[in-house]
Specification:
Layout lengths: L5 E8 L4 H9 L4 E8 L6 H5 L1 H14 L4 E4 L2 H5 L4 H13 L3 E3 H11 L4 E5 L4 H13 L3 E6 L11 H11 L6 E4 L10 H8 L3 E3 H12 L11 H4 L3
Parallel strand pairs: 1-2, 1-3, 3-4, 5-6, 5-7, 7-8
Length: 234
């Protein structure tokens, strides 16, 4: 198949419908998306932490398909404790020998790429999970200047306007950029509009993940409609 350039594998919680939908929309021509799932239907700390045990075996199934790279695509599941994202990467690498990232690691790299130091956090999360996200970002060298959450456990049922509204609410003068966290929260349709209206870069869990995966496989493709991170306008 001469037009098949890259194969990208994503691990998502079993209740997640958002990441697959948005990553397929961002996939450049010749790039395919392949999904494995981990049983997961709530955002308790115990459930998030159990994914470290499950992720390597699920990743091995993606490795059977000989994907070029793997992303652990649960943001909360990769920042729930400090250093957890690297633990996940190491465990998956050991099992699959396939280059790997997590959504939280991708967010860190995307913020650095866009030179965002002071970040406003928006999400569908309850307060305790937003606090963990802020701790993770501060641990990673960023300053969290605002955070807003919607206290929703299954945010895929919310339309993209909810992402627009909570991101706008989180914005403040001190913020260099906005993060919309959660791979199961639709926001792709509003990221360009947010950047235009707020006058600063906006990244989401899914745009950061897709950008990092394309970087890992050496793709030079630009993606329209997903913000400046993927458009090549930086």
């Amino acid at each position: 198949m001469t037009d098949w350039k890259h194969t990208l594998g994503f691990i998502v919680p079993s209740w997640n419908r958002g990441m697959e939908y948005e990553c397929w929309r961002m996939a450049p021509p010749g790039t395919s998306i392949h999904i494995s799932r981990i049983p997961h239907t709530d955002d308790s700390e115990e459930t998030l932490l159990h994914m470290l045990d499950k992720a390597p075996g699920v990743a091995e199934l993606l490795a059977h398909a000989k994907v070029d790279a793997i992303c652990f695509g649960c943001t909360g599941g990769s920042f729930v404790k400090k250093g957890f994202d690297q633990e996940l990467v190491d465990a998956i690498l050991e099992k699959t020998n396939t280059q790997t990232t997590t959504t939280s690691s991708a967010i860190n790299d995307a913020l650095k790429y866009l030179k965002i130091k002071n970040v406003a956090v928006s999400s569908p999360y309850p307060d305790w999970l937003n606090d963990r996200l802020a701790e993770f970002l501060e641990y990673s060298g960023f300053k969290v200047v605002a955070k807003r959450g919607l206290n929703k456990e299954w945010p895929i049922l919310l339309g993209p306007e909810n992402a627009y509204n909570v991101a706008s609410d989180a914005n403040c003068d001190e913020a260099d950029g906005i993060l919309i966290s959660c791979t199961n929260f639709r926001s792709l349709e509003v990221i360009d509009r947010l950047e235009q209206d707020l006058g600063k870069p906006v990244i989401s869990s899914n745009t950061a993940s897709m950008w990092k995966m394309l970087q890992m496989v050496g793709s030079k493709d630009k993606v329209k409609g997903a913000g400046m991170l993927l458009s090549g306008s930086v």
